[in-house]
Amino acid sequence: MTRLIEFVIALALVLALFLVIGLILPSSRELQESVETNRRMTIVFDTLNNVRRLKDWNPLVPSAANELSYSGGEDNTGVGAKVDFNSANPAWGQGSWEIVESERPAPTGGPGKIVYAINDKRMGTDKRSTFALEPTGKNNRNVKITQSYEVTYGWNLIGRYAGMYVSRHVGDAVKAGLSKLTNMLATVPNFDYRTEGSPLTDLKLVELPAEDLLVVNAGNIDRTNDAIKASIKQNQEWIKRVMEANGLVAAGPVRIITTDYGAEKYAFDVAQPVRKGSAAPKTDAAAEGEAAPAAAPAPVASAGELKVTIPSGAPVEYVRSEPRKLAFASYTGYTAELDNQRNALRAWAVTAGHEVVDRPFESWKSGVDGAFEGDGKFDIYWAVKQ
Q1: Which of 45, 108, 213, 305 has the fewest C-beta atoms lying within 10 Å of its C-beta?
Q2: Residue 8 pairs with which residues in a beta bridge?
Q3: Residues in contact with 307: Cβ distance below 8 Å, sequence separation at least 6, in sequence order
Q4: d(CA 334, CA 363)
Q5: pLDDT, tens digit, for every residue of 18-70?
Q6: Whole-angstrom Cα distance, residue 267 to residue 224?
Q7: CA-CA distance, 289 to 274, in Å (whole number)?
Q8: Contact 117, 124 (CB under 8 A)
């Protein structure tokens, strides 16, 4: 009997000690880690403001696409954007990350902030992760990313004890995630596609229908305006002969498909969307082989695969493209800036969670001669993985 009483007293003392220590322990925990990147503020903010990118760098979210579902926000960005996960892996289980605050930096510069509300199997309530973005470095060209994690345990004493290990369990994941984030950002072209007054506008995803194209490989041309223009016009003549021989007409502006834009050479294809039918009345520009800038036709869906006969010796190939989804932007300016605009479009697509595939191309809406003026008009496309 004495031993039993001693055991009960010892147990009571242990429980009392547990309660006392539990009440002394903090009812909430917070940790913070920081990294620095040389990517533009626009790229950093848009990456963190898009729930589709979380799986690519955040260890606290499953990376398997089939375990994730997205909802809310504008294209899954900004306040209301949410990723739900349901993983068979006990390390994650079920949960969600939802953007509850989003403060975009001012166009003239300044800090930004994104706040995520977290629901997962870890102990605690009111879990949040805040990303504070601050310009830093020489001329504020770099961005300091500070991620904080907050959790409340309230009167849950077991949770308070669990909070003693939050730095190890969550803190290590935050460190690893930020390191992976900076490595991922380093792969994004460092172009600010949202800068005030940018000639690149109307960035979005578009669907192109199946199309019929006549294509010529222009080869590797000297990267001068005269050489590029001469090559395009020469290859347009080959395409024109094939069109006339097969009763085809243009179904949109001429396209230039970029293979490689080097320091001294430019490798590209010339492509002309076509369809069966008679040509529309020619404008003065069209009579000289130029597309009419004000009436550049939009892409026309193909009615079915064409039967095209290529005359002997013509370096022209008939290609029927399948329906596809592409990143799109409009650009007004010189052709010399097109490569920068392509990379800016790719940066936008990647930060939005889309993987670009194949080669980019532009519709030269101002015709060939007009494209080399300061007000040349182009539609830029880059296919994305579906």
Answers
A1: 108
A2: none
A3: 246
A4: 14
A5: 455 544 555 567 788 999 999 999 999 999 999 999 999 999 998 888 899 99
A6: 12
A7: 15
A8: no
- pLDDT reported for residue 149: 87
Let me know if 35 is exposed, middle or buried by CB neighbors in 10 A (0-12, 13-18, 19+). middle
d(CA 226, CA 221): 10
Q: What beta strand segments (E) does the chain contain? A: 28-37, 68-71, 82-86, 94-103, 112-119, 125-136, 142-152, 200-208, 211-222, 248-250, 255-261, 265-276, 317-321, 324-332, 361-364, 377-383
10 Å Cβ neighbour count for 183?
Answer: 11
In the three-class reduction of DSSP (H, G, I as helix; E, B as strand; rest coil), residue 50 is classed as strand
Contact in structure between 119 and 108 (CB atoms under 8 Å)? no
Q: Is 171 helix (H, G, I), strand (E, B) or coil?
A: helix
Instruction: Please enumerate in sequence order all residues whose Cβ is within 8 A of that of 334, keeping only pairs 6 or more positions apart, or say none.
Output: 372, 373, 374, 376
pLDDT tens-digit readout, 251-304: 999 999 999 999 899 999 999 999 998 654 444 344 344 443 434 455 666 667
Question: pLDDT tens for residues 25-38?
Answer: 555 677 889 999 99
Q: What is the dihedral of CA 200, 201, 204, 208, to 10 degrees?
A: -80
* Closest to 141 measured CA to CA, from 106, 190, 180: 190
CA 169 vs. chain centroid, Å, equals 30
Cα separation, 340 vs 224, in Å, equals 16
Question: In terms of residues, how long is the chain?
Answer: 386
Average pLDDT over residues 112-131: 87
Parallel, antiparallel or unpaired: strands 125-136 and 82-86: unpaired
Q: How far is the C-alpha of 162 from the C-alpha of 125, rounded, in Å? A: 13
Nearest to 218 by CA among 317, 292, 122, 341: 317
Structure-token pair, residue 324: 């596809």
Q: Which domains can be identified in the chain, with CATH numbers?
A: 25-185 (3.30.530.20), 201-383 (3.20.80.10)
Report whether 216 contacts 348 (CB < 8 A).
no
Side chain identity at residue 106, one-letter code: A
Q: Where are the alpha helices (DSSP H) in the chain?
A: 2-24, 41-48, 157-162, 166, 172-185, 225-246, 284-287, 338-351, 367-371
Q: What is the pLDDT of residue 285?
A: 41
